[in-house]
Write a structure and sequence with these properties.
Blueprint lengths: L12 E6 L14 H10 L33 H10 L3 E6 L11 H20 L5 E6 L5 H11 L5 E7 L12 H9 L4 E4 L16 H7 L1 H13 L2 H4 L5 E4 L6 H15 L10 H8 E4 L9 H11 L5 E2 L22 H16 L1 H4 L1
Parallel strand pairs: 1-2, 2-3, 3-4, 4-5, 5-6, 6-7, 7-8
Helix pairs in contact: 3-4, 4-5
Length: 359
Protein backbone atom coordinates (compact mmCIF):
# COMPACT_ATOMS: atom_id res chain seq x y z
CA UNK A 1 0.00 0.00 0.00
CA UNK A 2 1.14 3.53 -0.68
CA UNK A 3 2.66 5.62 2.03
CA UNK A 4 0.58 8.79 1.81
CA UNK A 5 3.28 11.07 3.18
CA UNK A 6 6.43 9.85 1.42
CA UNK A 7 7.02 10.01 -2.32
CA UNK A 8 8.64 6.66 -2.94
CA UNK A 9 9.00 6.44 -6.71
CA UNK A 10 12.53 7.16 -7.96
CA UNK A 11 11.38 7.53 -11.56
CA UNK A 12 8.67 9.61 -13.22
CA UNK A 13 5.35 7.75 -13.14
CA UNK A 14 2.42 7.95 -15.54
CA UNK A 15 -0.53 5.84 -14.42
CA UNK A 16 -2.53 4.56 -17.39
CA UNK A 17 -5.44 3.11 -15.43
CA UNK A 18 -7.17 5.05 -12.65
CA UNK A 19 -10.83 4.34 -11.92
CA UNK A 20 -12.94 7.29 -10.88
CA UNK A 21 -16.50 6.50 -9.82
CA UNK A 22 -19.64 8.62 -9.82
CA UNK A 23 -20.98 9.89 -6.46
CA UNK A 24 -24.76 9.80 -5.99
CA UNK A 25 -26.46 12.52 -8.01
CA UNK A 26 -23.26 13.70 -9.68
CA UNK A 27 -24.54 13.12 -13.21
CA UNK A 28 -27.88 14.88 -12.79
CA UNK A 29 -26.60 18.34 -13.82
CA UNK A 30 -25.36 16.84 -17.09
CA UNK A 31 -28.54 14.91 -18.01
CA UNK A 32 -31.65 16.34 -19.64
CA UNK A 33 -34.86 16.20 -17.62
CA UNK A 34 -36.03 13.25 -19.70
CA UNK A 35 -32.99 11.14 -18.89
CA UNK A 36 -32.90 12.23 -15.26
CA UNK A 37 -36.41 10.82 -14.90
CA UNK A 38 -35.40 7.71 -16.82
CA UNK A 39 -32.48 7.12 -14.46
CA UNK A 40 -34.64 7.64 -11.37
CA UNK A 41 -37.21 5.18 -12.69
CA UNK A 42 -35.07 2.48 -14.26
CA UNK A 43 -31.49 3.00 -13.06
CA UNK A 44 -28.82 1.21 -15.09
CA UNK A 45 -30.25 -1.69 -17.08
CA UNK A 46 -27.60 -3.67 -18.90
CA UNK A 47 -27.42 -7.22 -20.15
CA UNK A 48 -28.01 -9.83 -17.47
CA UNK A 49 -25.37 -12.24 -16.26
CA UNK A 50 -21.63 -12.12 -15.80
CA UNK A 51 -21.50 -10.57 -12.35
CA UNK A 52 -19.65 -12.62 -9.75
CA UNK A 53 -19.02 -11.60 -6.14
CA UNK A 54 -15.75 -9.66 -6.24
CA UNK A 55 -12.81 -10.36 -3.97
CA UNK A 56 -13.67 -7.22 -2.00
CA UNK A 57 -16.64 -4.85 -1.95
CA UNK A 58 -16.53 -2.62 -5.06
CA UNK A 59 -13.41 -4.64 -5.99
CA UNK A 60 -11.56 -2.02 -3.91
CA UNK A 61 -8.61 -1.96 -1.53
CA UNK A 62 -9.63 -1.84 2.14
CA UNK A 63 -7.89 1.51 2.56
CA UNK A 64 -9.42 3.08 -0.58
CA UNK A 65 -12.69 4.01 1.17
CA UNK A 66 -12.43 7.78 1.79
CA UNK A 67 -13.41 9.39 5.11
CA UNK A 68 -16.10 11.34 3.23
CA UNK A 69 -18.18 8.18 3.01
CA UNK A 70 -18.12 8.15 -0.78
CA UNK A 71 -17.26 5.03 -2.74
CA UNK A 72 -13.62 4.26 -3.64
CA UNK A 73 -12.57 6.44 -6.56
CA UNK A 74 -15.36 8.97 -6.02
CA UNK A 75 -13.48 11.46 -3.83
CA UNK A 76 -10.92 13.51 -5.78
CA UNK A 77 -9.24 14.98 -2.70
CA UNK A 78 -8.71 11.54 -1.21
CA UNK A 79 -7.38 10.19 -4.52
CA UNK A 80 -4.96 13.10 -4.75
CA UNK A 81 -3.57 12.27 -1.32
CA UNK A 82 -3.52 8.47 -1.58
CA UNK A 83 -2.39 8.08 -5.18
CA UNK A 84 -1.24 11.18 -7.04
CA UNK A 85 0.71 12.81 -4.21
CA UNK A 86 1.89 9.62 -2.51
CA UNK A 87 3.49 8.29 -5.68
CA UNK A 88 4.33 11.60 -7.33
CA UNK A 89 2.21 10.69 -10.36
CA UNK A 90 3.10 12.93 -13.30
CA UNK A 91 -0.09 12.15 -15.21
CA UNK A 92 -2.97 9.76 -14.68
CA UNK A 93 -5.52 8.48 -17.20
CA UNK A 94 -9.07 8.12 -15.90
CA UNK A 95 -11.04 5.06 -16.99
CA UNK A 96 -14.50 5.24 -15.41
CA UNK A 97 -16.08 1.78 -15.61
CA UNK A 98 -19.64 3.02 -15.91
CA UNK A 99 -21.68 0.66 -18.13
CA UNK A 100 -22.91 3.22 -20.63
CA UNK A 101 -22.14 0.85 -23.50
CA UNK A 102 -24.12 -2.00 -21.95
CA UNK A 103 -27.47 -0.23 -21.61
CA UNK A 104 -30.38 -1.97 -23.32
CA UNK A 105 -31.70 1.46 -24.37
CA UNK A 106 -28.85 2.70 -26.55
CA UNK A 107 -30.09 6.32 -26.63
CA UNK A 108 -30.07 6.31 -22.84
CA UNK A 109 -26.55 4.88 -22.95
CA UNK A 110 -25.47 7.72 -25.24
CA UNK A 111 -27.03 10.30 -22.90
CA UNK A 112 -25.18 8.73 -19.97
CA UNK A 113 -21.95 8.83 -21.96
CA UNK A 114 -22.34 12.57 -22.59
CA UNK A 115 -23.05 13.16 -18.91
CA UNK A 116 -20.10 11.08 -17.74
CA UNK A 117 -17.73 12.84 -20.12
CA UNK A 118 -18.88 16.31 -19.06
CA UNK A 119 -18.64 15.27 -15.40
CA UNK A 120 -15.07 14.00 -15.89
CA UNK A 121 -13.90 17.32 -17.30
CA UNK A 122 -15.74 19.53 -14.79
CA UNK A 123 -15.16 17.51 -11.62
CA UNK A 124 -11.80 15.84 -12.28
CA UNK A 125 -9.66 17.19 -15.11
CA UNK A 126 -10.22 20.90 -14.58
CA UNK A 127 -9.62 20.80 -10.78
CA UNK A 128 -6.61 18.44 -11.12
CA UNK A 129 -4.13 19.18 -13.96
CA UNK A 130 -2.37 15.83 -13.52
CA UNK A 131 -5.46 13.95 -14.67
CA UNK A 132 -6.68 13.24 -18.20
CA UNK A 133 -9.91 11.50 -19.16
CA UNK A 134 -11.07 8.74 -21.49
CA UNK A 135 -14.10 9.38 -23.68
CA UNK A 136 -16.80 6.87 -22.76
CA UNK A 137 -19.21 5.96 -25.54
CA UNK A 138 -22.27 3.82 -26.23
CA UNK A 139 -19.95 1.65 -28.31
CA UNK A 140 -22.55 -0.79 -29.67
CA UNK A 141 -23.90 2.04 -31.86
CA UNK A 142 -21.30 3.42 -34.25
CA UNK A 143 -23.22 6.57 -35.18
CA UNK A 144 -23.91 7.66 -31.60
CA UNK A 145 -20.36 6.82 -30.60
CA UNK A 146 -18.83 8.82 -33.44
CA UNK A 147 -21.07 11.76 -32.56
CA UNK A 148 -19.76 11.76 -28.99
CA UNK A 149 -16.15 11.45 -30.13
CA UNK A 150 -16.60 14.44 -32.44
CA UNK A 151 -18.10 16.38 -29.52
CA UNK A 152 -15.30 15.54 -27.07
CA UNK A 153 -12.34 14.98 -29.39
CA UNK A 154 -11.23 18.64 -29.65
CA UNK A 155 -10.97 18.90 -25.84
CA UNK A 156 -7.33 18.24 -24.78
CA UNK A 157 -8.60 16.89 -21.46
CA UNK A 158 -9.43 13.65 -23.28
CA UNK A 159 -6.56 11.39 -24.36
CA UNK A 160 -8.27 8.19 -25.48
CA UNK A 161 -11.60 6.48 -26.23
CA UNK A 162 -12.69 3.79 -23.78
CA UNK A 163 -14.19 0.42 -24.76
CA UNK A 164 -14.66 -2.78 -22.75
CA UNK A 165 -13.08 -6.14 -23.64
CA UNK A 166 -16.29 -8.14 -23.86
CA UNK A 167 -18.38 -6.43 -26.51
CA UNK A 168 -21.45 -7.80 -28.30
CA UNK A 169 -19.40 -8.48 -31.45
CA UNK A 170 -15.65 -8.69 -32.07
CA UNK A 171 -14.31 -5.17 -32.47
CA UNK A 172 -13.13 -5.62 -36.04
CA UNK A 173 -16.80 -5.81 -37.03
CA UNK A 174 -18.00 -3.18 -39.51
CA UNK A 175 -20.49 -1.75 -36.97
CA UNK A 176 -17.57 -0.24 -35.02
CA UNK A 177 -15.73 1.34 -37.95
CA UNK A 178 -17.15 4.83 -37.47
CA UNK A 179 -15.55 4.84 -34.01
CA UNK A 180 -12.14 4.21 -35.56
CA UNK A 181 -12.68 6.80 -38.25
CA UNK A 182 -13.38 9.43 -35.58
CA UNK A 183 -10.49 8.19 -33.44
CA UNK A 184 -8.08 8.70 -36.34
CA UNK A 185 -9.44 12.17 -37.00
CA UNK A 186 -8.52 13.30 -33.48
CA UNK A 187 -5.45 11.05 -33.15
CA UNK A 188 -6.97 9.36 -30.09
CA UNK A 189 -6.02 5.80 -29.11
CA UNK A 190 -8.71 3.22 -28.44
CA UNK A 191 -8.39 1.91 -24.88
CA UNK A 192 -9.90 -1.56 -24.30
CA UNK A 193 -10.34 -2.35 -20.62
CA UNK A 194 -10.95 -5.58 -18.72
CA UNK A 195 -14.65 -6.30 -18.24
CA UNK A 196 -18.02 -6.34 -19.94
CA UNK A 197 -21.01 -8.66 -19.79
CA UNK A 198 -22.11 -8.88 -23.42
CA UNK A 199 -21.16 -12.56 -23.55
CA UNK A 200 -19.56 -15.38 -21.53
CA UNK A 201 -15.94 -14.90 -20.52
CA UNK A 202 -15.04 -18.27 -22.06
CA UNK A 203 -15.59 -19.87 -25.43
CA UNK A 204 -17.59 -22.60 -23.68
CA UNK A 205 -20.13 -20.70 -21.58
CA UNK A 206 -20.29 -19.16 -18.13
CA UNK A 207 -17.82 -20.23 -15.41
CA UNK A 208 -18.72 -20.71 -11.75
CA UNK A 209 -16.34 -18.37 -9.92
CA UNK A 210 -14.91 -14.88 -9.99
CA UNK A 211 -11.40 -16.32 -10.07
CA UNK A 212 -12.25 -17.86 -13.44
CA UNK A 213 -13.58 -14.53 -14.69
CA UNK A 214 -10.55 -12.60 -13.44
CA UNK A 215 -7.94 -15.14 -14.51
CA UNK A 216 -9.61 -15.87 -17.83
CA UNK A 217 -10.12 -12.32 -19.06
CA UNK A 218 -7.19 -12.57 -21.54
CA UNK A 219 -9.46 -14.79 -23.65
CA UNK A 220 -11.55 -11.73 -24.50
CA UNK A 221 -8.43 -9.74 -25.37
CA UNK A 222 -7.27 -12.60 -27.65
CA UNK A 223 -10.53 -12.33 -29.57
CA UNK A 224 -10.27 -8.59 -30.03
CA UNK A 225 -6.63 -8.65 -31.19
CA UNK A 226 -7.40 -11.39 -33.72
CA UNK A 227 -10.48 -9.55 -34.94
CA UNK A 228 -8.65 -6.25 -35.45
CA UNK A 229 -5.88 -7.95 -37.41
CA UNK A 230 -7.91 -10.38 -39.51
CA UNK A 231 -10.64 -7.89 -40.40
CA UNK A 232 -7.96 -5.68 -41.92
CA UNK A 233 -8.68 -2.76 -39.58
CA UNK A 234 -5.12 -1.43 -39.74
CA UNK A 235 -5.11 -1.39 -43.54
CA UNK A 236 -8.35 0.60 -43.47
CA UNK A 237 -7.28 2.78 -40.51
CA UNK A 238 -3.46 2.87 -40.75
CA UNK A 239 -2.88 5.35 -37.91
CA UNK A 240 -5.21 3.64 -35.41
CA UNK A 241 -3.67 2.84 -32.02
CA UNK A 242 -5.09 0.27 -29.56
CA UNK A 243 -4.30 0.09 -25.83
CA UNK A 244 -5.08 -3.17 -23.99
CA UNK A 245 -5.72 -2.35 -20.33
CA UNK A 246 -5.66 -4.76 -17.39
CA UNK A 247 -5.47 -7.87 -19.53
CA UNK A 248 -1.87 -8.84 -18.79
CA UNK A 249 0.63 -9.41 -21.59
CA UNK A 250 2.31 -12.84 -21.22
CA UNK A 251 -0.24 -14.30 -23.64
CA UNK A 252 0.84 -12.04 -26.48
CA UNK A 253 3.91 -13.95 -27.81
CA UNK A 254 2.14 -17.31 -28.34
CA UNK A 255 -0.82 -15.51 -29.92
CA UNK A 256 1.56 -13.76 -32.32
CA UNK A 257 3.25 -17.06 -33.21
CA UNK A 258 -0.04 -18.82 -33.84
CA UNK A 259 -1.47 -15.99 -35.95
CA UNK A 260 1.65 -15.75 -38.11
CA UNK A 261 1.70 -19.52 -38.68
CA UNK A 262 -2.02 -19.62 -39.49
CA UNK A 263 -1.77 -16.63 -41.82
CA UNK A 264 0.88 -18.42 -43.90
CA UNK A 265 -1.61 -21.23 -44.56
CA UNK A 266 -4.84 -19.22 -44.87
CA UNK A 267 -3.74 -15.85 -46.23
CA UNK A 268 -5.96 -16.22 -49.30
CA UNK A 269 -8.95 -15.82 -46.99
CA UNK A 270 -7.76 -12.38 -45.88
CA UNK A 271 -6.25 -10.74 -48.98
CA UNK A 272 -6.57 -7.30 -47.36
CA UNK A 273 -3.66 -8.14 -45.06
CA UNK A 274 -0.44 -6.91 -46.63
CA UNK A 275 1.85 -7.88 -43.75
CA UNK A 276 2.24 -10.63 -41.17
CA UNK A 277 -0.12 -10.38 -38.18
CA UNK A 278 2.88 -9.87 -35.89
CA UNK A 279 3.79 -6.69 -37.73
CA UNK A 280 0.32 -5.20 -37.29
CA UNK A 281 0.31 -6.15 -33.61
CA UNK A 282 3.72 -4.68 -32.84
CA UNK A 283 2.91 -1.47 -34.73
CA UNK A 284 -0.62 -0.81 -33.48
CA UNK A 285 -1.02 -2.30 -29.97
CA UNK A 286 0.09 -1.02 -26.57
CA UNK A 287 -0.39 -2.94 -23.30
CA UNK A 288 -0.67 -1.94 -19.65
CA UNK A 289 1.43 -3.78 -17.10
CA UNK A 290 -1.42 -4.46 -14.71
CA UNK A 291 -1.74 -7.20 -13.64
CA UNK A 292 2.02 -7.65 -13.69
CA UNK A 293 3.22 -11.03 -14.95
CA UNK A 294 5.24 -12.87 -12.28
CA UNK A 295 6.94 -16.02 -13.61
CA UNK A 296 8.84 -18.12 -11.05
CA UNK A 297 12.27 -17.40 -12.54
CA UNK A 298 13.89 -14.15 -13.60
CA UNK A 299 15.01 -15.56 -16.94
CA UNK A 300 11.42 -16.37 -17.86
CA UNK A 301 10.44 -12.71 -17.59
CA UNK A 302 13.45 -11.66 -19.62
CA UNK A 303 12.54 -14.23 -22.28
CA UNK A 304 8.96 -12.94 -22.30
CA UNK A 305 10.09 -9.39 -23.04
CA UNK A 306 12.43 -10.65 -25.75
CA UNK A 307 9.71 -12.74 -27.36
CA UNK A 308 7.19 -9.89 -27.28
CA UNK A 309 9.63 -7.38 -28.73
CA UNK A 310 7.31 -4.61 -27.55
CA UNK A 311 9.35 -2.79 -24.89
CA UNK A 312 8.26 0.51 -26.40
CA UNK A 313 4.60 -0.52 -26.04
CA UNK A 314 4.41 -1.51 -22.34
CA UNK A 315 2.90 1.15 -20.06
CA UNK A 316 2.53 1.22 -16.29
CA UNK A 317 -0.85 1.08 -14.56
CA UNK A 318 -1.86 0.89 -10.88
CA UNK A 319 -5.57 -0.05 -11.35
CA UNK A 320 -6.35 2.25 -8.39
CA UNK A 321 -8.46 1.86 -6.25
CA UNK A 322 -8.96 -1.85 -6.91
CA UNK A 323 -7.84 -4.72 -4.70
CA UNK A 324 -5.08 -5.84 -7.10
CA UNK A 325 -3.46 -2.38 -7.09
CA UNK A 326 0.15 -2.33 -8.39
CA UNK A 327 2.48 0.06 -6.57
CA UNK A 328 5.03 1.88 -8.78
CA UNK A 329 7.99 0.89 -6.60
CA UNK A 330 7.05 -2.81 -6.36
CA UNK A 331 5.23 -3.84 -9.51
CA UNK A 332 8.14 -4.04 -11.93
CA UNK A 333 10.88 -6.68 -11.48
CA UNK A 334 13.85 -5.28 -9.56
CA UNK A 335 16.35 -6.45 -12.17
CA UNK A 336 15.01 -4.28 -14.99
CA UNK A 337 17.58 -1.86 -16.35
CA UNK A 338 16.89 1.81 -15.49
CA UNK A 339 16.32 2.76 -19.14
CA UNK A 340 13.60 0.13 -19.59
CA UNK A 341 12.07 0.88 -16.19
CA UNK A 342 11.80 4.56 -17.13
CA UNK A 343 10.18 3.70 -20.47
CA UNK A 344 7.56 1.48 -18.86
CA UNK A 345 6.82 3.77 -15.92
CA UNK A 346 6.41 6.93 -17.96
CA UNK A 347 8.12 7.48 -21.30
CA UNK A 348 6.04 5.09 -23.42
CA UNK A 349 2.78 6.57 -22.16
CA UNK A 350 4.06 10.13 -22.49
CA UNK A 351 4.84 9.50 -26.15
CA UNK A 352 1.57 7.70 -26.94
CA UNK A 353 -0.72 10.19 -25.23
CA UNK A 354 1.36 13.22 -26.26
CA UNK A 355 1.13 14.58 -22.75
CA UNK A 356 3.73 17.28 -23.19
CA UNK A 357 1.82 18.66 -26.17
CA UNK A 358 -1.52 18.51 -24.36
CA UNK A 359 -0.66 20.44 -21.18
Amino acid sequence: MANTTTKRSKFPVIDCDIHNSVPPGALSPYLSKRWQEHYKTFGLRGRAGGYYPRALLNAARHDAWPPSGLAPGADLEFMQKQLLDAWNIEYGVLNPLIPVGEQLNVEYGAALARAVNDWQIADWVEPEPRLRASIVIAYEDGDLSAEEIHRCGPNPGFVQILLIARTKDPLGNRKYWKIYEAAEEYNLPIGIHFGGVAGPITGAGWPSYYIEDHGGMPQAFHTQVISYVCEGIFERFPSLKIVLIEGGFAWMPPLIWRLDATWKKLRREVPALKRKPSEYIRNHFWLSTQPMEEPPKREYFEQLLEQMDMNDKLMFATDYPHWDFDAPDRALPSFLKPELRRKILADNARKLYQFEGRI
